[in-house]
Design a protein that fits this description.
two-stranded antiparallel sheet, alpha+beta, 2 helices, binds zinc ion
């Protein structure tokens, strides 16, 4: 199961989004960051966050 936590991305916030369905997870987290922090993340960006968590050995090559 994938998970995104506000704290991991520099927010002083205990919100954690997790879900079996990655699309739902992204939607939950994006909605939270927009409503609570006024920051809009696209699903593409959030997907990259998750990919980095799951593949820590993939270095910045894929991320300009
Ligand atoms: Zn938050």
């Amino acid at each position: 199961m994938a998970k995104l936590s506000c704290r991991d991305y520099g927010f002083e916030c205990d919100f954690v989004a997790d879900d079996e369905d990655i699309q739902i997870l992204l939607t939950k987290f994006a909605k939270h960051t927009l409503e609570e922090h006024g920051i809009e993340y696209t699903k593409e960006i959030l997907m990259q966050f998750i990919m980095r968590q799951k593949n820590p050995w993939i270095e910045s090559n894929s991320f300009p």
